[in-house]
Write a structure and sequence with these properties.
CATH superfamily of the largest domain in chain A: NADH-ubiquinone/plastoquinone oxidoreductase chain 6, subunit NuoJ
Structural class of chain A: mainly alpha
Number of domains of chain A: 2
Oligomer: heterodimer
CATH topology of the largest domain in chain A: Four Helix Bundle (Hemerythrin (Met), subunit A)
Number of domains of chain B: 1
CATH class of the largest domain in chain A: Mainly Alpha
Largest sheet of chain A: none
């Protein structure tokens, strides 16, 4: 049952990612990226990473993708804006990505004997209580620095977007 | 477990393909987000399978960084559009030899 669910969600993620990469209309592409984000959140739930699944839906789908949609709707884009690409860079790009894919898969060849047995998996790692305990005991400094990073991002974004400095 | 690694690799390579092939700046930024998500998935899978919570915390911090980066990146794209009325990245070739 777990395997079947994994394959359904994985197929949905890959299909919507493929449509996102190859869609001509940017609005449809961003909508299919939203479907990809939801399916990755489903993957997190399958791993019992509950905190990450909820944060993925709230932060990635609910904030970042909505920001993409705002910007996309603010710009008046025609559908056929990208028709001027030559063939040679396209083929070189596809070929190099295929080499990257095969190379990365080749790096996993020696891994099949070292995985954790299914009965030994500790499913309490992803619970919010355990992650929160870890976050506020060992990772307090990165947590505070992350808030300063977000502040820098806000100031930078507003400053870049101003009409007159 | 191997299936998670393969899924993450496929999503990452799709992201790289999108960055190389597309010319719309917003779609390129979205492909960078796709790559970040694939790495997040891999980290969460390894963390769940080895019982260590550090991987999932790293995913949390990666999400924070990705949010800030998308905000600044979209501000840059808005500026791009305001100056040239287009988000095609191939018209920004002044540094090309």
């Amino acid at each position: 049952m777990d395997q079947i669910l994994f394959f359904i969600v994985a197929f949905l993620a890959i299909a919507s990612a493929v449509y996102f990469v190859f869609a001509k209309n940017p609005m449809y592409a961003i909508l299919s990226l939203i479907v990809t984000m939801f399916s990755i959140a489903g993957m997190y739930i399958l791993l019992n990473a509950q905190f990450l699944g909820i944060v993925q839906i709230i932060v990635y789908t609910g904030a970042i993708m909505v920001l993409f949609l705002y910007i996309l709707m603010m710009l008046n884009l025609n559908k056929e804006d990208e028709s001027k690409k030559e063939n040679l860079p396209k083929f070189v790009g596809i070929f190099s990505v295929c080499i990257l894919f095969v190379g990365m898969l080749g790096a996993y060849k020696g891994l099949s004997g070292t995985t954790v047995a299914e009965s030994n998996i500790d499913y309490s790692v992803g619970l919010t209580k355990n992650l929160g305990r870890l976050l506020f005991n060992e990772y307090v400094l990165p947590f505070e620095l992350a808030s300063i990073l977000i502040l820098a991002g806000i100031v930078g974004a507003v400053l870049i977007g101003k009409k007159d400095l | 477990m191997e299936y998670f690694i393969i899924l993450s690799t496929v999503l990452f390579c799709l992201g790289v393909l999108g960055v190389l092939l597309r010319k719309n700046a917003i779609v390129i930024l979205g492909c960078v987000e796709l790559m970040l998500n694939s790495v997040n998935l891999l980290l969460a899978a390894f963390s769940a399978y080895s019982g260590d919570g550090n991987g999932q915390l790293l995913v949390f911090f990666i999400m924070v960084v990705a949010a800030a980066e998308v905000a600044v990146g979209l501000a840059i794209i808005a500026m791009m559009y305001r100056n040239t009325k287009s988000v095609d990245v191939s018209i920004f070739n002044k540094l090309r030899g």
